[in-house]
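User: Please run a holo structure prediction.
Assistant: Happy to. Please share the sequence and the ligand.
User: Here you go; the ligand is heme C.
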Amino acid sequence: MNKVALTFVAATFLAAGSYARAQGVPKGDAEAAKGKITMCIGCHGVVGYQTAFPQVYHVPMIAGQSPDYLAKALQAYRVGDRSHPSMSAVARSLSDQDVADLAAYYGKAR
Ligand code: HEC
């Protein structure tokens, strides 16, 4: 690759990077999440609850965990890095803003 092409490639990467930063990660709004948790409390709102399908499964406690961790976990289900039949389906229905709001909400919840 010649110098001009290299410069072009480097500039493209830099531009892509600053574009991603400009888009940013949406800021979580715990208040806004209150309308979104209806689809979570069926499983995560019950202490000691276990799903019976497709196998008996302990539902983890998510209240009070770090918002960062929660957001990363939800993103992982969304993109398939982590998979669980119900969580993957739930996570795929969420937008970036939903993930941020839910992470903020559950991060504060006890
Ligand atoms: C059908 C039951 C069910 C519903 C509905 C559900 N979850 Fe889950 N969730 C689970 C189970 C079971 C796991 C553990 C799966 C695993 O081990 O990967 C889990 C895991 C998680 C985790 C990862 C926790 C950890 O400790 O790593 C997060 C975060 C999470 N759920 C958030 C949510 C949010 C937010 C909603 C609502 C938008 C939701 N879940 C809806 C059952 C459910």
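The CA atoms of residues 50 and 56 lie 6 Å apart.
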